[in-house]
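Question (not urgent): is this output format expected?
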Amino acid sequence: MKLGPLFDENAPEEETKETEEVNVRRLVIVVTPTSGRNKLRGVLLRRLATTLKLVAQLLLWIVVEQKSDDDSEVSEILRRTGIMYKHVVLKENVSNVDSEMDHQRNIALNHIEHHRLSGIVHFAGCSFALF
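Got this back:
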C-alpha cells in the first residue's frame, strides 16, 4: 500500500512547506455592533468579552456603536477586558434598529478594508438568549 505525499518520507520539500503553511494561525477579527437602546448592553459586552478571552489565537475585537451620551461605559468595559480592541463610534443617526446594525457591520468592514487587516472575520452580536 502506497501512502500519499504527506506520509512519504521522500516527499519533496515544497509539499512539506505547503502543509506547514496551513497550520499558521491567522488573526481573528470579531465585529460587534451595539445599540444604546439595549439596557443590557454593558452586561452583554462583558459576557462576550469573557468568552473572547478563551480564544487562543490572536484576536481583534471591533465594537461599533452610535454616538450617545453613554459612550464612556462601553469604552471603560473594553479597556478592562484585556482584549485587543478597536472602538468605532458613529456620528450618524439611524432610526431603524435593524438598519442601524447593518450599517454598523458595514462600517466595521470598511474599517477592516481601509486598514488592510487580514484575518478571519466573525460577526458576534450582543444578544440575550433565555434557555
